[in-house]
Amino acid sequence: MPSNKDLAKKFTRPRLFANRDALRDTFDPPEIVGRVPEQEQLRSALLAAYDGEEPPNVLLHGPYGSGKRACLDTALSALAAAGTDVPIATTAVDCIPQDSPEDIDARAGRLLDGAGSIEAHEDQPLSEIVEVASDTLSTEMVVLVVLDGFTALDEPRTLLERVASIAADVPQVHVGVFGVSADESVVDDHGPTQHASMFDRTVRFDAYDRDTLAEILAQRATVAFKETRVSDLGSDPLRVESDVLDSSVIARIASVVAGRSGSARRALDLLSRAGKEAESESAEVVTGTHAETAIREAEETRTRRLLRGETHHCQLVAFAIASLGNDSAEQTTGQVKTRYQRLVQHGGQEPVGPRQVARYLTTLDELGFSEKQSAGNEHRHAVACASPEVAVEALADLIDSRDGFGPFESVENYEEMLLLG
Fold this sequence. Notes:
alpha/beta; Arc Repressor Mutant, subunit A; globular; Helicase, Ruva Protein, domain 3
């Protein structure tokens, strides 16, 4: 049990945050950093709704944390604030894989907002709400449906057809669908896939670069931390003046995240973790050391989470990639397979065949653990979710049995194994 002295110390330690919620992805920032072309495309798509006409169906696609929902929510809020002659109702549904079109229809009805003269009853599906409203509407109206993660559904086309039928059955109601997806395969090098072809327009969101991530972090830091301000938004590197946040923290986190995923969500989480780490130490300033600790802990956690449910041999293939480091000369498919085979044999097991290793490599790429790169006639595999050193440590915890790894204390002793030939 902590002593009174320990408790007193805990309650009197320096408080660095003014509003830590500003670092959450649910926080509504005063303005969207970057994304000017994307915001303009969304505003253009919503002009038809503003004029009381049928809006286009729009697909927003890009990696996690690239600002898709933030930009869309901002555009929809601006539309609502503009004031229109025609009532506009919006509904946003987070789709999950087991959802049927009927499930989405029901949730869209429950979440309908700003319906004007439409009277919705609890648990009434959207299609039914609109159908009943057709008898009472004295004017046209627009319904905007946001389907976040729609590509996870088994029947996305059926769902879109169901929504489209609402507009067909009730001519005075104009329905527009905004599909949001982090699935990179939704649009490929050959053009729109089956999913994308269901929409009239597509808006692409690329991963954020280092400078934009730094601007996002600086914007949120001025709200999240005490006595923090941006001295020159256009400077390189970005200059943040703060009594509690060292200037190196934002630059370091932006650089690391830009090299991994380009996700603003991940960058904000790391900044929050760094601040929490500093407060737990009763530090008066968040430093680069706190940032490095936050980065390492987050990367370890993410690596374990990505691979915890994979097979033992898939984890060993991942370990082979990580143990080769990020030296491009050592990362070829052949080198990974050879390293995997030697690790398994030293662990007293039988390796799987080359085809199965190839399947594991594909799985690891799809999970986001690694990234396959083409180099002439060869493919190279680099760790994408963490530094190789962190990935090695996190994977060792998953791979090692209670008795170690074969005759070795841990698979982390791979260098000792490789010396044995």
